[in-house]
Structures are given as C-alpha cells and as structure tokens.
Specification:
Number of strands of chain B: 9
Number of domains of chain A: 1
Number of helices of chain A: 10
CATH architecture of chain A: Orthogonal Bundle
Shape of chain B: globular
Bound molecules: adenosine-5'-diphosphate, magnesium ion
Largest sheet of chain A: none
CATH topology of chain A: MetI-like fold
Largest interface: A-B, 18 and 23 residues
Number of helices of chain B: 8
Radius of gyration of chain B: 18 Å
Largest sheet of chain B: 6 strands, mixed
Oligomer: heterodimer
Structural class of chain B: alpha/beta
Structural class of chain A: mainly alpha
CATH topology of one domain in chain B: Rossmann fold
Helix content of chain A: over 70%
Number of strands of chain A: 0
C-alpha cells in the first residue's frame, strides 16, 4: 500500500515538473495518433457518406464488413502491417518498419472502420430526413453526400474523437510495428507496458494518469461540442 | 412544361394498391387542390407527380414545352419542412446553387425571397431553431426562389397553428399571383375553400371527382365527396 502511494506521488511529481522523458512520450503519442486519426477521417468519412446515400449492389456487405472490422483485434492489425512493411514484405523497400510512420499506418487501419461505420450510421439517419428534399432540389449523390458531411459535422466530431480515443489507447498494433524504441517509437501505451514490467511504476502511472485524463477530456469535449451545436443550430 | 398528364397511374407497395388507376390532365392556371381524407393517397400521388416515386404502372408526363431551367421547373414543399443545418439564407441559397444560379445572383435572390415571406430579420439565424411556422415559410421561400413553373405543396399547414397557417396561405396566394401553378394537397375543407380553384377529390387511391371548387362545395357529385363534406370521413 505504501509502495503504491509512493508511486502515485512520484507519478504526480513527474507530471508536475514536466519531466522531459515523460513528455517526449506524450508528445510522440499525440503526434502519431493525431496524424492517424486525420488520415482515417479523410478516408473514413467519405466512405461513410457514400455508404449512407448510395444504394449500390454489395452495399449491405460492405456495411457488415465495416461493422465487423470495428472489432478488429489491434495485434492482428499490427501483425498484418508488420508483414507488409517487413524487409521481405511488399512494402519492405520503403524501410518504414519501426518508425512512427508505421505506427500511423497501423492506427489508421485500425480506426478507418470505426470512423466509416459510425459516420455512416450518423449520416444515414440524416439522409432519412433529407433524402426527399434533396432529391426534390435536384441534388445528385455526390452533392447529397457532401451536404450530409457538412450537416452532421458536429456529430462527426464525436465520431472522429472516438476514433482518436481508440488510436491513442491502443497498444497491440503499435508495439509490433513500432518496436517500442526509446525516443523513437515509444508512445504512452507501449511505455506503460514496458515500465510496468520493468517495475518503474511512477513513470507508468504518470503516463496512465495522463492517458486516462486525455480520454476523459476528449469525451467531455465531444459531448460539449454536440450539446452546444444542438442548442445553437438545432 | 404544363399540362401534367397522368395516365392510368397506379402505385402499389407490398401488394397494397395505394394509387388506383388515376387519369387526369392538370392545366396551367387555376390552383388545383387535391382533397381527400387521411390515408387517401394524396401524399403518394404528389410524390409520383413530382418524380420522387416511380409509378408501378401508368405514366406521369409533362406534355408542354420543356422548361429552360435545370431545376426542371418544378419544386415541392413538404408537410414537415426539411431544414438544413445552416442559416435561413443559406437554406435558400442551397436550392439556388443546385439549380445552377451564380453565387452573387443566389444571394440577391435569396434576400429578395426571404423579404417576400417576411423572414429578413432571421436571415442569418440557424434554420432549425426557427419556429414551425417560420420553417415552413422558409421552405416556401426556398421553393419560390427557384421560380418554379409548378409548385407542389403537401399539406403545408397541417402541423401549424391557425395564425401560422394563415400566413402560409397568403404566401401561397402570392406565389400563385407571381405566375406559378399551385398543386396542393389538403384534408382541410376550410383551406380547400379558401385556396382552391379546382378540386381533385381522392378517396382510397381513386380519383372520385374533379370539378371547380364552387361546384364541388355546392353540389358534390359523388357519394364519397358528399360524405367527406359532411365530415363523415376521417
Ligand atoms: N412507404 C409506404 N409504405 C407503406 N405504405 C405506405 C407508404 N406510404 C404510404 N403508404 C400508405 O398509403 C396510403 C396513402 O398514404 P398517403 O398518401 O400518405 O395518404 P394521405 O392522403 O393522408 O397523404 C396510406 O394507407 C399509407 O399507409
Ligand atoms: Mg399526406
């Protein structure tokens, strides 16, 4: 008990004095996950919009696939990206295995289905309301899709934040493709795993506290944005 | 584009006939009211005419000169106004932009038409927080701005209080006076009397009677219409 209390105090002290090792890890984590979520949003949101308004053949299959991919185990994604990027793999010549870029790719793959599936749900609900009006005004599918993207923007912020939350908290994929190299690919989750096993509880705890605070803050921000938007725009 | 010619128009869903062999020619000029009890098929008929639904059999044909606008020369206002998540002004501009109107022209026309429906003071308010009556006026403005040759209105006052309904009715009068053909559904007898020049009476998917409003209210020819006028149909 006393040991735990000491660890907690030391963790808070690390955060309090902006410990450089700790903050290097936090900053890298944010860089990787923010880039990954940006890439995933740029790919996932248009897919979600297209699925919401298009009635092409196989649409249902794509939706089921996306919903299934939402539950993709991160280690499996890590393994697949590893195989792609390893020296013998098809993208081996790029030489990006064990770099932040590899981690960004893995996280993006992990959350594209989440952003795609959740945003489709959101935009499909809006489409049910808008469809006749937009068709009456002569909107083609592409226009309809971009209108939906814009009109559900506040709900989509929540969707994107959910994706970010999953990316930043994920450990299995980044540890495989990043390698947890100190100062290069060590992010919050992989550092927590390593430091815990090494017995450096203060650093692990400090990172854990920051990670949890971040996730809570994100969720709070998401619901605040939505509520404010609802009040303001209806 | 008028006259609008319906030939043996049928529409069925899951084997239920909703529109049953309607043939009629609707000419330019008088305000045409599609009158009938709830569930008669008025809304479905209107969607068929506007092109939002495909007939099961029979045809909807505009037999007149082609309109020279991309919007197709027809617009529709729905029972529940569909407001896009943007300002009132942007809602009107949205329709104009889809119709291929240049941006500066869009803005000018949008301001004019908002003025005409008495919404200038809320031009920059988010459309979805306007009152029900204001939203329906905005929906009328969005349709009117397109300068349609034909305006379809599906029970445009059904969800409104009497005061708001009267405002809508006077705007409809102004739109008609500006040269648009009005085709409107209602199950409200008072409204049909106030706005109707000619009546198409629909019951259970069939066109049972067509006559001038004067004659319809003085001496309805069919038993169904007589019952409806006595308030015996829903
Ligand atoms: N999408 C639909 N699916 C099944 N039934 C429908 C659908 N749309 C309308 N109907 C049925 O068609 C009939 C006519 O509906 P509607 O045209 O909305 O009547 P109203 O004259 O009140 O506007 C009703 O019995 C309604 O239940
Ligand atoms: Mg109806």
């Amino acid at each position: 008990m006393e040991e735990l209390r000491q660890a907690c105090l030391q963790a808070l002290a690390l955060i309090g004095r902006l410990d450089s090792q700790l903050f290097e890890i936090v900053v890298l984590s944010l860089q990787v996950s923010l880039t990954a979520v940006t890439v995933a949003a740029v790919i996932g949101l248009p897919i979600g919009a297209a699925l919401a308004v298009e009635c092409f053949r196989g649409r249902q299959a794509v939706i089921v696939l996306f919903n299934a991919l939402m539950g993709l185990p991160p280690v499996v994604v890590g393994l697949l990206v590893y195989l792609l990027l390893s020296r013998a793999g098809p993208l081996g010549p790029l030489g990006i295995l064990f770099t932040p870029t590899a981690m960004i790719i893995a996280q993006a793959i992990l959350i594209i289905p989440i952003i795609g599936a959740l945003s489709r749900q959101t935009m499909e609900d809006a489409w049910r309301e808008y469809e006749e009006q937009l068709r009456s005004l002569g909107a083609k599918r592409l226009t309809a899709a971009s209108t939906l993207l814009w009109d559900t923007r506040f709900s989509l912020v929540t969707v994107v934040l959910a994706g970010f939350g999953r990316a930043v908290a994920e450990v299995g994929a980044v540890i495989i493709v990043g390698g947890n190299i100190d100062g290069v690919t060590r992010v919050m989750t992989t550092a927590i795993a390593l430091e815990t096993s090494k017995g450096d509880l203060p650093l692990a705890l400090g990172l854990g506290i920051i990670l949890v605070s971040l996730v809570i803050a994100l969720n709070a921000a998401a619901s605040l944005i939505r509520e404010a938007a609802l009040r303001r725009y209806g | 584009m008028l006259p609008l010619e319906l030939r043996d128009l049928c529409f069925a869903i899951n084997g239920n006939t909703i529109i049953d062999r309607i043939s009629v020619q609707i000419e330019d000029g008088p305000r045409t009211i599609i009158l009938g009890p709830n569930g008669a098929g008025k809304s479905v008929l209107m969607r068929l005419c506007h092109g939002l639904l495909k007939p099961t059999s029979g045809t909807v044909a505009w037999t007149g000169r082609r309109p020279n606008r991309r919007s197709g020369g027809q617009a529709m206002v729905f029972q529940r106004p569909v407001m896009l998540r943007r300002s009132a002004l942007r809602n009107v501009m949205y329709g104009l932009k889809l119709a291929g109107v240049s941006r500066t022209e869009c803005e000018l026309r949008a301001h004019d038409v908002l003025d005409a429906v008495g919404l200038s003071h809320v031009a920059h308010h988010p459309a979805r927080v306007l009152s029900g009556g204001e939203q329906q006026r905005l929906a009328l403005a969005r349709a009117w701005a397109l300068g349609p040759e034909v305006l379809f209105l599906d029970e445009p006052t059904a969800n409104l209080d009497p005061g708001a309904a009267r405002e809508i009715e006077s705007i409809i009068g102004a739109i008609h006076a500006s040269g648009a053909k009005i085709i409107m559904t209602t199950h409200n007898l008072g409204q049909a009397r106030r706005l109707g020049d000619e009546i198409l009476f629909i019951n259970q998917g069939r066109l049972t009677e067509r006559s001038s409003a004067d004659r319809f209210f003085r001496e309805p020819a069919s038993a169904e219409a007589t019952a409806f006028l006595r308030g015996e149909l829903p």
